[in-house]
Amino acid sequence: MPSIIIARSSQEYRAREDALAVACAQAGWPVLMTPHLYHLAEASPIWQDVTALPPSVVIVSALHPRPAEWLLRKHGVAGMVLAEDIRTLDALDDVVERLRQFGHPPCADVTVREVHASVGQRWYPVIDSERCRHCGQCAQFCLFGVYAMIDGRLTVRQPDRCKPGCPACSRLCPHGAIIFPLYQDDPAIAGAPGCVMTPDPQVVARARTRLQAKAPVSTPVTDELDALIDELDALAQRKD
Ligand code: SF4
Ligand code: SF4
Questions:
Q1: Residue 15 half-sphere exposure, CB side, CA atoms within 13 Å?
Q2: Average pLDDT in the 16-44 region?
Q3: pLDDT reported for residue 56
Q4: Which of 176, 168, 175 is nearest to 206 (CA)?
């Protein structure tokens, strides 16, 4: 029996989120409504509510399904995950029918529980761990110390040091594993269905050349990174 998580997004989708919550509860699934999960602080106790749910989870959020799933997995959800994007949901009846195929609801009365927290705007990479091969190129590339290689495995150690709006390392990953779910200019970087981010060899070569002379740093080198991001974006656009 799955639990439904409906992550609040913006005012635009509020009525749809509420209607879906009621429809799911009426159909017999317990519903947990949370703030926007991407913006939720790493230390928020709401993550404990999420990971305490039964093993099968349906997440409905204003994110593409792939980043939504990896966000949950990063925070410890280990069972089956079905992710739905509230922005593209069709008729609620169809959605409820799809959920029925994922797992049958119990026949008891269930309620909608909403948990609240004040959330700021965050910006950080979400890693698709099925694709990541732990090559470490992103960790080498990032000047802000967002990533670390620990025991040969890539970790997003300091997500909030990521530069807002910067998607540069996603263009370099050889396996399309780095997702910036809120990036609007390229659906592949945002992890949209059917889109795979493939590295642009020209961009990779240019980035390597620019960074070759640089020793790892512990403090942001904003001007250098800004210039590099502009250069990568310009190169990527020329390829489009
Ligand atoms: S560049 Fe891609 S594959 Fe390599 S460690 Fe980073 S995310 Fe993983
Ligand atoms: S987007 Fe930029 S700042 Fe953020 S992790 Fe990647 S390289 Fe570092």
A1: 1
A2: 93
A3: 86
A4: 168
- Reference 169, options 194, 152, 147, 151; nearest CA is 147
CA of 167 to the centre of ligand 2 (A): 6
Q: Predicted confidence band at 210 (pLDDT cuts at 50, 70, 90)?
A: low
Q: 3-114: which CATH architecture?
A: 3-Layer(aba) Sandwich (3.40)
Which residues pair with residue 29 across a beta bridge? none
Other C-beta atoms lying within 10 Å of the C-beta of residue 70: 25
- Output the CA torsion sign for 152, 177, 160, 224: positive
What is the residue with the minimal CA distance to atom 4 of ligand 1? 135
Ligand 2 mean position to 4 CA, how many Å?
A: 32
Task: Note the ligand closest to the C-alpha atom of 169.
Answer: 2
Domain boundaries defined on the chain:
3-114, 126-239
The protein residue whose alpha carbon is closest to atom 1 in ligand 1 is: 173
Atom of ligand 1 nearest to the CA of 176: 2
Provide the pLDDT for residue 212.
61
Kindly state if the Cβ of 169 falls inside 6 Å of ligand 2. Answer: yes
Read off the pLDDT band of 220 (50, 70, 90): very low
- Return d(Cα 182, Cα 108) in angstroms, integer: 38
Two structure tokens written together for 192: 């949209």
Q: Which of 20-34, 38-52, 81-95, 207-221 has the lowest mean pLDDT?
A: 207-221
As a whole number of angstroms, the distance between CA 145 and CA 156 comes to 9
